[in-house]
Amino acid sequence: MAKVVVGLSGGVDSSVAAYLLKEQGHEVIGLFMKNWHDDSVTISDECPWLEDSNDAMLVANKLGIPFQTVDLSEQYKERIVDYMFDEYARGRTPNPDVLCNREIKFDVFMDIALELGADFVATGHYCQKKTSIINNKEVHHLISGADGNKDQSYFLCQVSQEQLARTLFPIGHLQKPEVREIAAAQDLITAGKKDSQGLCFIGKVRLPDFLQQQLKPKEGAIIEIPSSISLEKAAVLKDEDEWITLSRKRNYHPHEGQQLGTHSGAHYFTRGQRKGLAVGGTPEPLFVIETDVKTNTIYVGQGKSHPGLYRRGLFVDASEVHWIRQDLQLAVGETMDVMARIRYRQSLEPATLYMKENGLYVIFKDAQSAISPGQFVAWYQNDECLGSGVIA
Description:
This protein is α/β, with parallel strands linked by helices. It is built from nine helices and 18 strands. Helix content is 25%, strand content 29%.
């Protein structure tokens, strides 16, 4: 049996992961990551890390496993929070959960676990790992969780073969209700605990309040763009490869629309956003279709079917293309038919990858809503996540 360090988060999923590993006969150690100190921007009376660490300790005591807390707040600020501020300042929309897995859980945390002599690190993620031999080499596969409603493989789309080799996902084959039943049967304090929401390890926050710690308010114009203008900008240009046209961001200008009001900073908004505009009186709800942090302008359109919200393609710079399955990595000029998603909980959509010298073009069969620079696109075949990239 192996020595396994479990990332005990204080939630039901990691609690059951630890229980199952102990039942299988492994030597299990519980480790809680403290990544955030500032409770001033959290909503209501939530104090995420304090309550969670107490619950994690109680679970470890109940299971009879060693437990300790590690403070990774310095690394979390440097690698996640500072990155988020920088991305929002550039008018992009980062995904802290994907970054947290890549930079903290499966890097800094894994290094600590290995220093403790662990053979593996285990988490409560709803995904699965399989291992096979391909061309006389061991290859690890990141497979979607059995519970389609909870599948978290998207959040792990940036992990490497080396990280997967050292990782276990004890609950990936279970449905969420089964996990809660196991926790209740073992009388674990987390059995009925609600799933965490909000930013990874920070909790539910008022995002503008959080961003205002670094990004100051700055008044700018809210411009409504008619559907006809967006349709014109979506037209395929002559003498240009189709995948380039389909993936191009549309650049609007204030004179193309009508000013409806003002906002407090373009960097506080993201594509597809509906709430927070504080503008009424239009026949259909307004959605953000584009932001321009250089001119501090927000462009909006009426209705969720506004053509400005939709695009069939996106681009990932060559430096941002990541293959979990390195043996399937595309060479320049090659293509691959895949299923892909651009956000968590989105259904997988048919797409084709086009690898070019400057990077990867992902062209969907159907237009996708609110493709946002800074987010991750992940691509799959047969429920296996093959790779991912940051949307340019």
